[in-house]
Amino acid sequence: MVTIDLTAPPPPPTSLLDGMARRLALTLPELRLVADLAGGAPLPFNLAAEDAARSETSALSGRLGRSLGSVEDSAYADALATLHDPEDTLRRRGLVTDEGADPGLVGAVGLLATPRLALDIDVAAGQAQVKAWHRQSGQAVASLSTCDGIVFELAWFPVDQWTTELARVTAPPEDLPLGASQVPALLDVPYALADPVGEALRAGRADLVPVLVSQSGGSVLADGAELGDAEAAAAVSAVHTESRGRMRILAAEVSERATTSVGVVSWVLLGDGWHSLTPRHDDGARVAVARVDPDDLATELAPVLAQVALREDVA
Questions:
Q1: What is the pTM of this model?
Q2: Where are the domains of the chain?
Q3: Is the pLDDT confidence value at 315 over 80?
């Protein structure tokens, strides 16, 4: 069973370098080349499937005309075509020599392919979207992230620095100012109300929200106190109308067997910052919407990882 305490502060580094992750920016061709040099290590995303999908889209657009998606795919392919030869660029940076690739680089890519614990992270905030993959085994963690699928950040660091690295994932963009929110610090809502309210608002039927609240079979709680219908309608609506981003993390323990167990952490970015979305089943199907800080992500993940490891150990 994997046991990692993400809630404890890391020990103080003995030197400046010990307290820092090593990071490298790699283009997609460079990343593919390093993966080949690491013994054909698979990357944490399916490049072959994505390439095939782009080829199919290109073939269809030739017959049906260019859609927005095909234009974006064409721009992506054109951007990749402008990149220099990956072996030349890696050699100029000293990351590849006649003896092979930098051992740390190869080790990080190898860890991405053979982890014990895996996090797949998808964050959207404002106009930015970032995908990241964190992989852990033993005392080491490797992470790979990208916002455009062309340039990737590869990092590797000791496991006691993982908490700090996770906080980087949830830092809101500087050009996305935060203010106040109509959502309480802790909002507890029946799922049977939260979901229909969202559907009504997306359909432009805000007039249905008071009706849905009045017909709801469960109460809406703000910081433990029950809200009246008007306050409940405003708070639940704000969860949807204030949304400026979201984050979803899939956590899995990768077993030596073919199966893995999976847990999920979901956050939504509202007017005043991040709020976690946590399902509850102790009092019917409900969801708790709680104000959190970026530094809280490790604390939110810790019980999910513990449950994932426990399920895998029992299986």
A1: 0.82
A2: 25-109, 186-241
A3: no
